[in-house]
Amino acid sequence: MKFKVSHSQDTVKGELKITGSKSESNRLLIIESLFKNLQISNLSNSDDTQVMKKALTSNEVEVDIHHAGTAMRFLTAYFSVQEGRETVLTGSQRMQERPIQLLVEALRSMGAEISYEKNEGYPPIRIKGKKLQANSVSLQANISSQYISALMLIGASLPQGLTINLEGQVTSTPYILMTLEMLQRSGIQGSFEENTIRIEACSELSPKTIPVESDWSSASYFYSIAALAEEAEIKLSNYREESLQGDSCLATIYKQFGVETNFDENSITLKKSKCSKPASITEDLRNSPDIAQTIAVTCLGLGTACKLTGLHTLKIKETDRLVALKNEIEKLGGEVVISNDHLELKPSATLNKNVAIATYNDHRMAMAFAPIALKIPVIIEDAMVVSKSYPDFYNDLETLKFIVEKD
């Protein structure tokens, strides 16, 4: 289904409640399934979290997680420690093209029994759950942080806990720290010093309720809207100034575009009252790669050149996001150069109207490009792909007086 998105006003105002972070939600669901006694409030309503919940309660041999990359990584580790259970973990065609070998090798080194059903190094995989006795594992530090988090989440369930030795420069540190904080909030002890992560063994948790902060990646689209509007005042809940999410760096990055973030007790208000269009910006996004698409489109809409680095993990997401960004930005009139880990944008003075933006089965492509409707009408193909992380996205756009025409 295609949606045509447009906006006819200079000022954007409104209040929105954003769904809970799927990153926090999915970590807590694994912890709750391993140890019980947890109650989770403000759980994400995203497809990825619904898939995770279903997988954790499934009694079937085959568990299909569709497009949910986080679920694939976390569940690979989770099912490895489910003693006596055999599971075939599979997903969409794109998921079967996304590598899992480094995590599988790490788990095998700990004694896990995992085999490939089709292609070596890729899902689907067959996992024979067993009691793992290993108390340490080593792996490269510059891989997806989801591999590292997957091991951290099962660490406390092992008889001696788990020490994870990271080799080289760590990528996406905030996500590792988020996992550690989620474990600690649940009552599990752990530490992360230099390149060593230590998770202490735990047999039982005390009952408690843990609230999930709203998703900062989802907030990024409203930062983009505020930046592209002439004036804006958008209130978003539930957010904290001391956030665990790496994408909370948005508050600093978007100051360059004239967007101020005011923190209240349980919300943020984005305000823009003056036009701010820097000629160019440079950002290292190694710790927050999921907001690269949003920033690139913001810059395109403002006529701002940008260089975004630290993007090597984008090539193994729902699509190759660097290639996808290049393709779609150039349809709108921009000029993009990409490499394995960076993107450079030279924007056009004028934008092409009513362009159909392909979304490549990637929720973030749809949501990153929608805000440019403040400048020119745009058509989003396969528009409901947003349900992967943010099912209410278009309803929230309409609250902010965007016109969303469904075809």
TrEMBL record:
InterPro entries per the UniProt record, alphabetical: Enolpyruvate_Tfrase_dom, Enolpyruvate_Tfrase_sf, EPSP_synthase, EPSP_synthase_CS, RNA3'P_cycl/enolpyr_Trfase_a/b
Residues binding phosphoenolpyruvate, per UniProt: 22, 69, 98, 146, 321, 364, 388
Pathway(s) served: Metabolic intermediate biosynthesis; chorismate biosynthesis; chorismate from D-erythrose 4-phosphate and phosphoenolpyruvate: step 6/7
Binding site for 3-phosphoshikimate: 22-23, 27, 144-146, 172, 290, 317
Protein family: Belongs to the EPSP synthase family.
GO BP, sorted A to Z: amino acid biosynthetic process; aromatic amino acid family biosynthetic process; chorismate biosynthetic process
Subunit structure: Monomer.
Keyword Cytoplasm: yes
Catalytic function, reaction form: 3-phosphoshikimate + phosphoenolpyruvate = 5-O-(1-carboxyvinyl)-3-phosphoshikimate + phosphate
Keyword Cytoplasm listed: yes
Principal subcellular localization: cytoplasm
Spans traversing the lipid bilayer: none
Keywords tagged on the record: Amino-acid biosynthesis, Aromatic amino acid biosynthesis, Cytoplasm, Transferase
Annotated gene: aroA
EC code: 2.5.1.19
Molecular functions per Gene Ontology: 3-phosphoshikimate 1-carboxyvinyltransferase activity
Descriptive protein name: 3-phosphoshikimate 1-carboxyvinyltransferase
Pfam families found in the cross-reference section: EPSP_synthase
Matching PROSITE patterns: EPSP_SYNTHASE_2 (PS00885)
Function summary: Catalyzes the transfer of the enolpyruvyl moiety of phosphoenolpyruvate (PEP) to the 5-hydroxyl of shikimate-3-phosphate (S3P) to produce enolpyruvyl shikimate-3-phosphate and inorganic phosphate.
Location of this chain's protein in the cell: Cytoplasm
Gene3D superfamilies to which the protein is assigned, alphabetical: Enolpyruvate transferase domain
Any one of the GO CC terms: cytoplasm
Catalytic residues of the enzyme: 290 (proton acceptor)
Domain Enolpyruvate transferase span(s) in chain numbering: 57-397
